[in-house]
Each structure stands twice: as structure tokens, then as C-alpha cells.
Amino acid sequence: MRFEPRARDLPRIPGALKFYQVASIITGTLLLLLCAEMVMKYAFGLELELGGAYGFLAFVPSGSVAAINLSIGILVVHGWFYVVYLFSDFRLWSLMRWPMMTFLLIALGGVVPFLSFFVEARMARRVRAYLAERAARDAQTVEATH
């Protein structure tokens, strides 16, 4: 049985979609930065340092960061933005009343590189198509009652 969004939730859906899109882009970008940082750290033994002896922004050997360790910063910021991303995922998912697998697919977008960009585009198309179809259906209902 397919559930549809409640009529009282329809005005909230565009805002939830915009919030999800912004969170998705930020989380996806931070995930790509995190992946690049992990390659630099584990493949080349380098960490990103801000404001150290080597200049404003520099890669230094792992374990020798003397100033601000941006490698750790990217990790922490991505982790917190992933929490925001999950909240935006949950909000959109609950308003649209989608199945649990849709929630899990969207949640994977924040941990699989590049996936958030594809899932975000797909979900945005899906929500906009639903809203347009619902508006057309509601307009027909109003016309039929007059």
C-alpha cells in the first residue's frame, strides 16, 4: 500500500526539500574532501596543516602537525554535517511518507563518495513531480466540485 503525504504537510515539503538539498551538497563535498585527505594521509603519509611553519596551508608529514590540523577538522565537520544530513533526510522522508528503504538509500548518500549528488538529484525530481501531480489533481477536484 502506497502512502501519500498528508494535506496538512504539503506546504512544508518544499522547505524540507531545499533543506535536504543544501545538506546533501555540503555533506557530499565534505565527504570528497575527507576521502582526499585520507588518501593523502594513508597513501603519502601527509596531513593538512593550517598556519604552521610551512606557510598558511601546507601538507606536512603525519604526526608532525604543530599548528591547526585540518585533516582532523575535515573529519569532525563532515561527521557533524552528516548528522544534519540525516535529520534533513528524515524530515523529507517522513513528510513524503516513503518506505524505509528510501530513507536508507538517502542515508547512504552521506557515506558513499559522489552518491549524495546523484541521490539528491533523483529525490528532488521525485518530490517536484509528486507536488506537480498533486497540484494538478487538486485543481481537477476543485473544478469538478464547481
UniProtKB/TrEMBL annotation:
PANTHER family, per the entry: MEMBRANE PROTEIN, MEMBRANE PROTEIN-RELATED
Membrane topology classification: Multi-pass membrane protein
Record's keyword annotation contains Transmembrane: yes
Top-level division of the source organism's lineage: Bacteria
Alphabetical keyword list: Cell membrane, Membrane, Transmembrane, Transmembrane helix
Principal place of residence: membrane
Transmembrane regions: 20-44, 56-81, 101-119
A GO cellular-component term linked to this record: plasma membrane
Localization annotation: Cell membrane
Species: Paramicrobacterium humi
One Pfam family recorded for the sequence: DUF3817
Isomerase is among the record's keywords: no
Span of domain DUF3817: 17-125
Lineage: Bacteria, Bacillati, Actinomycetota, Actinomycetes, Micrococcales
InterPro entries, per the entry: DUF3817_TM
Name this protein carries in UniProt: Integral membrane protein
